[in-house]
Amino acid sequence: MPPSNPIVDAPLLAHRGASLYAPENTLQAVELAAKMGAKWIETDVQVTADNELVVIHDLELERTTNGAGFVALHTLEQIRALDAGSWFGNKISGYQVPTLQEFVACIVDNDLNLQLELKELPGRENDIADRVCSEIADIWPFERRKLFLSGFSERCLKRVARNLPDVPRAIALLCIPEDPDAYAAETGAQIIHVQDKFVDEEALRTIRASSMEFGVATVNDPERAKYLLNSGVTSILTDDPLLLEQDGVETRLRALAHQQ
Known about the structure:
The protein is of the alpha/beta class. It has nine helices and nine strands.
């Protein structure tokens, strides 16, 4: 049976902020998600060439900035000089790739909770785990806001468990393991995240038979989201914080107009 007291205490996590309406993983996307009623934000963290932590999803810069090449081969100063907004729309400019410290401050200021995904470089998993855990231990208000760390790398999560044993962890997968509880025990995770395209009826039966907490990414169709939530899934990662609003279409149109 799914957990009665899940770590994620809301049906939706805003995937990289309100990323349907604003450039993903920017402070503006977080602030907009909060205005739309989000309680949780999912984001991604990476290490720069000078060992600083920045919030960006792709290992390379091209898709969401006007830069090029690997994040890990650029210094913080170089990344901060990039435009992280105009790719989303011609009228959007002046957006930067935030540091983890800036992002956490924005999360806390907006009374949000955080899923922080570690984007490791294969072969350097311990580097990001150690750096993130050290900074999170210093800046996260554990007594006031909820947090869990996630990633695709088992090695990375095990390092996180050693550094911050009391912080929950999620293993990110493509599909449902045959035995989710055993898989979670092996990886030291309390949450399993899977991709929606792999969640069929058989997968949902496995979810309902498991004691694990499950999140599904990325779902932007409201009917699909409702179906999954009614079928045993604990939470949905979505680009649209308004996904479950009754007047969803009209509300989304108003939000888009507000951004223009």
